[in-house]
């Protein structure tokens, strides 16, 4: 996810992040639980008790959504898929799985793992919250657990709705993929179901708003819009993978990029390269190997009097592994690499030597052209290979605040 987020300790080797939007929702949930939900479920308790119940309920929901996403991630990793991390955000949570499943059965098992985990948590919370001796003298704890059980039950049921990108939509895609052997068509149908479900939530939200449930209604509208956008994004991603899946970086790169020697002085660099070729940055290459990048931002750290005596190597920015891609890599893999690394270009290497450059803007244009070929994408047939796939995240949501209060 692209927005600001806080990194937490890893769980089972999987990076965990909390988007800043989650804290807004957490505050809203806590207020709702302390001011309305728990006083209605357990009347007559002191105010501080409701406050602690609200804190426990909010943290419990955080853990439950995290466990839901961990279930997706653990199963996906068992099938060899890469996990970029788990992020909790305003609408719930996402497991950022970097690859699409290679088989319908893998798609089904990864998708169903989340709702199963939520269902197990719901049953566990319900069982422990019953008036057993362990909680018999703690009605506040029992009520909080019972409520968390209810939330997890609703979370499991909501995510089983057959509408992409919800888990049920992925289950539907797995079934359709197995039925016809056509991954692209299955994605098209499940994404269309997601779009229709999003429209239903929007209409229901407007109805609820008109009938007096303003908060719940607005939340439903926002969730519906989010689901429609996510379904459309998932379908576009599939189009790009299908149309561009057979293309290699060598097919679209700009070969033999202009490079600078590390021994060149800055004054010559400006005259012979910047003013002549009008690029803002250039690779610094020695013996075919990329050492770094130099451009206007680095030159700006010097005074004009220093240009004639300062070699480029003194101001260049060293390159890192995310700056490079192999010449035989797939175009879809390049798109994924650019997105994950936040780069605007990749240096293309052949056995460690610079042979080309791949600009993000060129890939964006190419991806846009791919989405203009819906017929080709729909009849693309099989799923993308594990090497070239880049999956939209598994979505757990929406946050059940206004569904249950």
UniProtKB/TrEMBL annotation:
<keyword id="KW-0378">Hydrolase</keyword>
<feature type="transmembrane region" description="Helical">
    <location>
        <begin position="183"/>
        <end position="208"/>
    </location>
</feature>
<dbReference type="InterPro" id="IPR000644">
    <property type="entry name" value="CBS_dom"/>
</dbReference>
<feature type="domain" description="CBS">
    <location>
        <begin position="253"/>
        <end position="310"/>
    </location>
</feature>
<dbReference type="InterPro" id="IPR046342">
    <property type="entry name" value="CBS_dom_sf"/>
</dbReference>
<keyword id="KW-0472">Membrane</keyword>
<keyword id="KW-1133">Transmembrane helix</keyword>
<feature type="transmembrane region" description="Helical">
    <location>
        <begin position="20"/>
        <end position="42"/>
    </location>
</feature>
<feature type="transmembrane region" description="Helical">
    <location>
        <begin position="49"/>
        <end position="68"/>
    </location>
</feature>
<feature type="binding site">
    <location>
        <position position="68"/>
    </location>
    <ligand>
        <name>Zn(2+)</name>
    </ligand>
</feature>
<feature type="active site">
    <location>
        <position position="69"/>
    </location>
</feature>
<feature type="transmembrane region" description="Helical">
    <location>
        <begin position="108"/>
        <end position="129"/>
    </location>
</feature>
<dbReference type="GO" id="GO:0006508">
    <property type="term" value="P:proteolysis"/>
</dbReference>
<dbReference type="Pfam" id="PF02163">
    <property type="entry name" value="Peptidase_M50"/>
</dbReference>
<feature type="domain" description="CBS">
    <location>
        <begin position="316"/>
        <end position="373"/>
    </location>
</feature>
<keyword id="KW-0812">Transmembrane</keyword>
<dbReference type="GO" id="GO:0005886">
    <property type="term" value="C:plasma membrane"/>
</dbReference>
<dbReference type="GO" id="GO:0046872">
    <property type="term" value="F:metal ion binding"/>
</dbReference>
<dbReference type="Pfam" id="PF00571">
    <property type="entry name" value="CBS"/>
</dbReference>
<keyword id="KW-0479">Metal-binding</keyword>
<keyword id="KW-0645">Protease</keyword>
<keyword id="KW-0482">Metalloprotease</keyword>
<keyword id="KW-0129">CBS domain</keyword>
<dbReference type="InterPro" id="IPR008915">
    <property type="entry name" value="Peptidase_M50"/>
</dbReference>
<keyword id="KW-0862">Zinc</keyword>
<feature type="transmembrane region" description="Helical">
    <location>
        <begin position="214"/>
        <end position="231"/>
    </location>
</feature>
<feature type="region of interest" description="Disordered">
    <location>
        <begin position="380"/>
        <end position="405"/>
    </location>
</feature>
<comment type="similarity">
    <text>Belongs to the peptidase M50B family.</text>
</comment>
<feature type="binding site">
    <location>
        <position position="167"/>
    </location>
    <ligand>
        <name>Zn(2+)</name>
    </ligand>
</feature>
<keyword id="KW-0677">Repeat</keyword>
<keyword id="KW-1003">Cell membrane</keyword>
<feature type="binding site">
    <location>
        <position position="72"/>
    </location>
    <ligand>
        <name>Zn(2+)</name>
    </ligand>
</feature>
<dbReference type="GO" id="GO:0008237">
    <property type="term" value="F:metallopeptidase activity"/>
</dbReference>
<feature type="transmembrane region" description="Helical">
    <location>
        <begin position="141"/>
        <end position="162"/>
    </location>
</feature>
<protein>
    <recommendedName>
        <fullName>Zinc metalloprotease</fullName>
    </recommendedName>
</protein>
<dbReference type="InterPro" id="IPR016483">
    <property type="entry name" value="UCP006404_Pept_M50_CBS"/>
</dbReference>
